[in-house]
């Protein structure tokens, strides 16, 4: 169901130190750290298992808004998600297409009525 969740934080370094310790007993480790060098220029850190970061911390650039990424089985489903979001009154935050975050990362983004960034992502090679 979920591909990833992004939690906005006010102090990325403090939050990384906290979540490193909090999640370790669950076998969840920090896999990615980008301090002011992410594709958006924001700082973030990704936690997960088996090479997939599914829980993210992001600096205050997204303050107050949640980011949720839903898994999609196909790229067509990503496009249908985007179209449905617009039809339901959502705001476009990035149409269907490949993104530079990882190989075969095909995603689309909708801002919901409360300002949350909702994403659908397909990681299949086509």
Automatic annotation (TrEMBL):
<protein>
    <recommendedName>
        <fullName>VOC domain-containing protein</fullName>
    </recommendedName>
</protein>
<dbReference type="InterPro" id="IPR029068">
    <property type="entry name" value="Glyas_Bleomycin-R_OHBP_Dase"/>
</dbReference>
<dbReference type="InterPro" id="IPR004360">
    <property type="entry name" value="Glyas_Fos-R_dOase_dom"/>
</dbReference>
<feature type="domain" description="VOC">
    <location>
        <begin position="1"/>
        <end position="123"/>
    </location>
</feature>
<dbReference type="InterPro" id="IPR037523">
    <property type="entry name" value="VOC_core"/>
</dbReference>
<dbReference type="Pfam" id="PF00903">
    <property type="entry name" value="Glyoxalase"/>
</dbReference>
């Amino acid at each position: 169901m979920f591909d990833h969740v992004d939690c906005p934080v006010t102090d990325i370094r403090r939050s990384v130190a906290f979540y490193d310790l909090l999640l370790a007993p669950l076998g969840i480790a920090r896999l990615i750290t980008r301090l002011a060098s992410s594709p958006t220029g924001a700082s973030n850190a990704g936690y997960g298992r088996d090479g997939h970061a599914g829980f993210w911390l992001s600096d205050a650039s997204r303050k107050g808004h949640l980011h949720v990424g839903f898994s999609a089985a196909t790229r067509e489903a990503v496009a249908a998600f985007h179209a449905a979001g617009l039809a339901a009154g959502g705001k476009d935050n990035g149409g269907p297409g490949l993104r530079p975050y990882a190989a075969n990362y095909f995603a689309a983004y909708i801002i919901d009525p409360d300002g949350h960034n909702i994403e659908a992502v397909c990681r299949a090679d086509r």
